[in-house]
Design a protein that fits this description.
heterotetramer, A alpha/beta (143), B alpha+beta (303), C mainly alpha (202), D alpha+beta (320), A: 143 residues, alpha/beta, five-stranded mixed sheet, two-stranded parallel ribbon, 5 helices, B: 303 residues, five-stranded antiparallel sheet, globular, structural constituent of ribosome (chain A), transit peptide (chain A)
Chain lengths: 143, 303, 202, 320
């Protein structure tokens, strides 16, 4: 097989482009100071770790991001990749920044977030552990 | 439900076997060809008046046609699925809709306190057949593009409303993802537009203007009629323009077998719609009745 | 998951369709494949019986069947059909033959329009050959029809069995009629039956 | 069930390799010896070999062969043409009038046509096929039973296809024997094995005296031979398949491989002038003709009925 034929192989790359893996660019959707500044400056946060066993993030997963030279944690509240029926799919990969205790850095989320995030975040929350459900309190709209 | 249907099929099969001894002499002499038999049965129930009505139904109920992939065909499974689909249709009203129609779906969800979730958007794709038929709705909510896919026969769906019944120029509208946001923004509290009876389905001939690249698809290589081509050409580089011709496949127009393998032949379509005709007709009658009641009430209120 | 293509209605073909097309390799790709098949389809319409590689024949058969069924379906006044015929038939007088000769020939046909036969090959090295022909061609038939010949042994046996069966049925009917009649007129009819039975045995 | 020899291991036993009692083996060996010697004698009697011209008329082309008088058979001619011709032809037609066995030497210059089961009018071939089936059934009966049971073949009537079954009558030293379906299946299997062996069916015409010598052990045949020889000028025609020899007028098909589907369907006991006999009935189809199982079942069912051909008049049966 000649070298040029390799580029004619029929495999798709677009699915993988939508995956949230290390070095993926994300969009901060809350009104935290650092998040707003990063988005305004055109320096969106970069995912540097996904806290799950697959390494590919999806709705409700915790990610570690590099934002304006700082390390922050965030929760994915909406993703671009293909979703099963009745789960909304968004045009951007959205995160809400949180601190180590699970408290969001901002006090308002200005995009819709999926309803099933309620159940997912409640399941991830343990007594005396990190409380993620505070994010739900600052959400403006569910779809 | 499933077991009942299956039994019914078995009974019918049994009936066929009972007929067998009657025609045993004709079977013995192995001269008649099997094609002849099927042909005659197809022609038996063909009536000139019903013919056109039945074939128009394929646009309204495309999911009643089976998957054209030959390996996946199974007549008993297809039939059972059709029965199940009709049963589901008798439970909730699944309206006539097309790609480009603005619809709202209310579905049950265990995640929220009200246990209900309503999503409104434009249908950008209709895919799949049988019980696995799906459609995708798209809307821009709070400046964020949102898409939700639904199974048409999902039992958790409570209500499907058609807000504005119309068609677009294309069979799928994924280019709306790269179009300017106003083309897929619809207020969530949109009022339904009721078309008068017996009007043809209006075709929306808008040609969308795309956002600058990057895009999710190579729209310049496709021939979607709903994209404003002149504007699109200003957005792409010269190299991309040169590559358009390279990716054209003009011979596919003449590939008769490819077309044949992608579709269900007319005779089979007739057979299928003849099978479900009476039940679908009754459902439509019931729908009309309820519509009349609704339209009768409304002018009173406004007056 | 696919949905059937709704834009075009096609007539059902009366041949077995393979789920996927044969991989007829061609340096020009799919376009070259169609061009090769085009030569075969043109040859088939022209000569009505051709011998060639079996796989190519099987592939071309579907296209020939579709071409004829489109021609029957839409006739010669339909522009898209004319365009397709123009593509598939490289010799232009054959378009005339398709619409004026083949369409009337196959208009009432309930079977496939073509026939494909496998040829036996002597050498293992030769590719499998096939004969592709249009039905109703002027050449002598390639295979004998054994079912029509009533003199063949199995047909003789079946005919005799049928005769026997009918004979039994008649006897049964006759007996049934006579037993009904028995109630009214017992003596005379029983006598008749016995006579009849004797006749049958004789 | 207990009477049929290879019931217990019906798929292992080959009927012609049986370990029979010494007497029956010696009888068969003796018969074959006489047959072989006579065949060798007749061949050596020919003397100087003369050539004859044989014109073969086939659909595609006519061919001419130079063959040996009293030595070459239509089978040899077919061998010159093609293997396919050898396999498919069952009989030959000499000079457009005489039906000729494939293994019967040609006697003079002649024109030749080969007959097969798929001809336009295969009347002669069908008849020969039916006759051969009766003859082969005899071979099956002769070898199927245990040694303790004495079997004497009587005869088989001339073929009548419309009667629905071919027939062979035999005396079996059993009282009121009604074969079970398994026993019938064993008989059918034996017949099928014979067809799979692809045995040629040889033909030999001998004098009355020699025939009596061959069938010295069979009282029925001894009775029949004088009548037969009287009608055919002091000669008796013998046929042999494997090691089984029987009297028949002929003609017969060339090889048992031409028998396709076959089954022995029923055995009836009949009363005749010669005492109590058993009438074995069966049905068979030539190899090229295919029939669906349903239709074949109808034919099988029909063939279980008692075939009344030449029933009761056993003397006529000898005229086969």
């Amino acid at each position: 097989m000649s070298f040029s034929n390799i580029f004619l192989r029929p495999f798709h790359t677009s699915k993988e482009c939508y995956h949230i893996i290390k070095m993926s660019r994300l969009r901060v959707v809350d009104n935290s100071e650092i998040g707003r500044r990063a988005m305004a400056e055109g320096k969106p946060p970069k995912c540097i770790h996904v806290y799950n066993k697959k390494g590919v993030g999806t709705i409700g997963d915790k990610v570690l991001v590099a934002i304006l030279g700082e390390k922050k944690k965030g929760i994915l509240v909406g993703v671009k990749k293909h979703q099963p029926p009745r789960v909304p799919k968004f045009d951007t990969n959205n995160i809400v920044l949180i601190d180590d205790t699970g408290t969001p850095l901002g006090n308002r989320i200005h995009v819709p977030i999926p309803v099933m995030l309620r159940t997912i975040l409640k399941e991830k929350t343990f007594a005396k552990g990190v409380d993620y459900t505070k994010i739900l309190a600052i959400a403006s709209r569910f779809v | 439900m499933f077991s009942n249907l299956y039994r019914q099929c078995l009974v019918e099969k049994h009936f066929v076997y009972n007929l067998f001894p009657l025609c045993k002499w004709s079977q013995c002499f192995a001269s008649s060809q099997p094609e002849l038999a099927t042909e005659s049965t197809i022609q038996a129930f063909e009536e000139p008046e019903k013919r056109s009505i039945k074939l128009e139904q394929r646009f309204i109920y495309p999911e009643f046609l089976p998957d054209p992939k030959i390996e996946w065909r199974n007549s008993i499974r297809e039939r059972l699925e059709r029965q199940d689909m009709l049963k589901r249709r008798s439970q909730i009203e699944i309206p006539e809709f097309y790609v480009g129609t603005i619809m709202a779906v209310t579905s049950f969800t265990p995640h929220s306190t009200s246990k209900k979730n309503r999503f409104l958007g434009i249908c950008i794709q209709r895919k799949g057949c049988g019980l696995r038929a799906t459609f995708v709705l798209r809307n821009i909510i709070d400046n964020l593009g949102t898409e939700v896919a639904y199974h048409l026969y999902d039992p958790t769906i409570e209500k499907i409303e058609v807000i504005r019944l119309e068609k677009r120029l294309d069979d799928e509208l994924f280019y709306l993802r790269d179009a300017l946001p106003e083309y897929s923004t619809f207020p969530l509290d949109m009022e339904p537009v009721i078309l008068p009876d017996n009007t043809p389905i209006p075709v929306n001939t808008t040609q969308v203007i795309l956002k600058p690249r990057p895009w999710v698809g190579r729209w310049e290589r496709t021939d979607f009629k709903g994209i404003n081509r002149e504007h699109m050409m200003t957005l792409i580089s010269d190299k991309m323009k040169m590559q358009i011709a390279k990716h054209q496949k003009p011979w596919e127009k003449y590939d008769l077998m490819k077309q044949y393998r992608a579709t269900i032949p007319e005779e089979e379509q007739k057979e299928i719609f003849a099978e479900v005709y009476s039940q679908l007709h009754q459902l439509e009658l019931g729908k009309k009745k309820s519509k009349r009641i609704r339209t009768f009430v409304k002018p009173k209120k406004s007056a | 998951m696919n949905q059937a293509d709704l834009s075009k209605l096609v007539s059902k073909l009366r041949i077995n369709i393979r789920p996927r097309h044969y991989n007829l390799k061609n340096p020009k790709g799919p376009e070259g494949r169609l061009e090769r098949l085009r030569i075969v389809v043109t040859g088939l319409i022209k000569h009505e019986r051709i011998q060639l590689n079996y796989r190519v024949a099987d592939e071309a058969r579907g296209y020939a069947e579709r071409l004829i069924s489109e021609a029957i379906r839409y006739g010669d006044c339909h522009a898209p059909t004319m365009e397709i015929a123009d593509y598939w038939l490289t010799e232009k007088q054959l378009i005339h033959k398709l619409f004026k000769v083949l369409v009337p020939r196959f208009h009432e046909c309930n079977m496939s329009y073509t026939k494909l036969l496998r040829l036996s090959t002597d050498h293992e090295l030769t590719r499998m050959q096939g004969v592709l022909e249009l039905r109703g061609n002027p050449y002598p038939p390639l295979i004998k029809d054994l079912s029509r010949n009533r003199n063949l042994l199995h047909n003789v046996l079946l005919d005799a069995a049928r005769k026997d069966y009918r004979h039994e049925q008649y006897l049964r009917i006759a007996q049934g009629m006579s037993s009904e009649g028995k109630k009214s007129n017992e003596e005379t009819i029983t006598g008749n039956i016995e006579d009849k039975d004797k006749n049958e045995k004789a | 069930m207990k009477y049929i020899r290879n019931y217990r291991k019906s798929f292992q036993l080959v009927i012609f390799c049986r370990q029979a009692s010494y007497s029956s083996v010696s009888v068969v060996r003796n018969q074959n010896e006489i047959f072989d010697n006579e065949l060798a004698r007749q061949t050596s009697d020919i003397g100087r070999i003369e050539k004859i011209t044989v014109n073969v008329h086939e659909k595609i082309k006519n061919e001419t062969f130079s063959m040996n008088k009293h030595l070459s058979t239509p089978f040899n001619v077919a061998q010159h043409i093609s293997k396919w011709m050898v396999e498919k032809s069952a009989l030959a037609l000499v000079d457009n009038s005489k039906v000729w066995d494939m293994h019967k030497p040609l006697e003079d210059d002649c024109s030749l046509r080969f007959l097969s089961f798929t001809d336009e009018d295969p009347h002669h071939v069908n008849k020969a096929f039916w006759r051969t089936c009766s003859f082969v059934l005899g071979a099956v009966i002769q070898n199927a039973f245990n040694d303790s049971i004495k079997v004497l073949l009587h005869s088989f009537p001339s073929p009548q296809i419309t009667s629905g079954s071919f027939v062979h009558d035999a005396m079996v030293s059993l009282d009121d024997w009604k074969p079970s379906s398994d026993e019938l299946r064993c008989l059918s299997a034996d017949m099928l094995k014979l067809s799979l062996k692809e045995l040629p069916i040889e033909r030999l015409t001998v004098k009355e005296q020699l025939a009596q010598e061959i069938f010295a052990e069979n009282k029925f045949k001894l009775q029949q031979i004088p009548d037969i020889s009287k009608n055919s000028g002091g000669k008796v025609t013998l046929y042999r398949v494997g090691s089984h020899i029987d009297i028949s007028k002929g003609p017969m098909i060339s090889n048992t491989s031409l028998i396709g589907r076959c089954s022995v369907t029923s055995v009836h006991s009949i009363e005749t002038d010669n005492g109590k006999l058993y009438r074995f009935q069966g049905i068979a189809l030539p190899k090229g003709l295919l029939l669906n199982h349903f239709a074949y079942k109808i034919l099988e069912d029909r063939s279980t009925k008692l075939n009344t051909k030449d029933y009761g008049s056993t003397k006529k049966q000898a005229m086969v």
